[in-house]
Design brief:
Elements: H1 3-13, H2 17-21, E1 28-29, E2 34-37, E3 46-49, H3 55-74
Antiparallel strand pairs: 1-2, 2-3
Length: about 100
């Protein structure tokens, strides 16, 4: 991801630096051009807009990230520590949901 893309995302979507750094795939809704910002300023969630000119770079980045994740899974390393995870997480909790959709539930 280029610095200019990150700067455009910060400015165009009105994100703070930490909010941008903590974005997750499921926080992006490219069809509705929305970004869900979790635990933003004031420890509140909010929805902000995704500028139309940033949708194609976001799609390209997500395609590259999915390919990297698939390669990591094939190599046996495609897992992450879940935030706020309990001592016994549900089975397969770190695997993608069926359908592969990135939108909010």
């Amino acid at each position: 991801m280029s610095r200019s893309f990150l700067a455009s995302l910060l400015y165009g979507a009105g994100l703070h630096l930490l909010e941008c750094a903590e974005l997750r795939v499921k926080d992006l809704d490219l069809e509705r051009r929305e970004i869900l910002v979790r635990d933003g300023k004031g420890r509140k969630d909010r929805i902000t807009m995704l500028p139309l000119r940033l949708v194609p770079p976001c799609r390209d980045h997500l395609t590259a990230v999915r390919a990297q994740h698939a390669a990591d899974v094939a190599a046996g390393t495609g897992w992450v520590t879940l935030p706020d995870a309990s001592a016994a997480p549900p089975p397969r909790a770190s695997e993608p949901r069926k359908g592969g959709d990135c939108r909010r539930s």
